[in-house]
Amino acid sequence: MHKELAKLQSVVDKLVRDIASDGRTIRVLDAGCGSFRYVDLKQNVYTVGIDVSEKQLQKNANLNEKILGDLQTYDLPASSFDLIICWDVLEHLPNPTKALLNFKNATKKGGIVILKLPNILSIKGLLTKFTPLGFHVWMYRHVCGSQEAGKDGHGPFRTFFKFSIRPAAVKRFALENGFSIEYLSIYEGHVQNKVIDTILAILKFILQIFTLGKINPNKTDYIMVLKKQKR
Ligand SMILES: C[S@@+](CC[C@H](N)C(=O)[O-])C[C@H]1O[C@@H](n2cnc3c(N)ncnc32)[C@H](O)[C@@H]1O
Fold it and tell me: What are phi and psi of 63, to 5 degrees?
């Protein structure tokens, strides 16, 4: 397991243990669920998955309930989830703040929101933002060797990557909207492809020179865990 995932897992284990201390089933929303969930939940959980892709929902075997819908506009029931997981999704939304407000409304008091996403202020983030989807598909197909890339229900998905989802902005949003920050890690994610790693290494070097070291191009991803305050 990637060490960042292991660290997150121990934070989540503790927070969820506290929520489910009376042994009840906890309600989880997997927001932009795709077909896979990275966080392991040991308690009794009832998981609702929402995604705009019917194909992704069909492939997801971890859900008790499936919603075909848009996170930004779907009317999620108020104060209905103990835990919301939004993993590699906010970068795909034209209005991520709308989704975050939806999460705020749908989280129970004392509930948890886990956000994992790429850091726009990194080489991977800037490259993803300023290149078209066609280029991402080409990279997945020809460099990563994924022949299904870009076909219906397969990534890479269209990316908007708004600056409003840089770590400092999301942190500010959380604090202004009644959440505490329980955990924040901005770290180097791994692409695990020699060609991409080499291209990124060259671009990182150039970026560091041009931004006089102000942008740390290696911090490609981040995880933030929020808790909705009870007051
Ligand atoms: C990179 S995948 C991540 C999937 C999954 N969370 C994971 O970590 O494997 C992004 C997912 O977000 C979904 N998505 C994109 N825009 C969305 C929206 N507006 N509302 C809900 N889901 C959306 C895509 O269909 C896709 O399944």
Answer: -105, 140
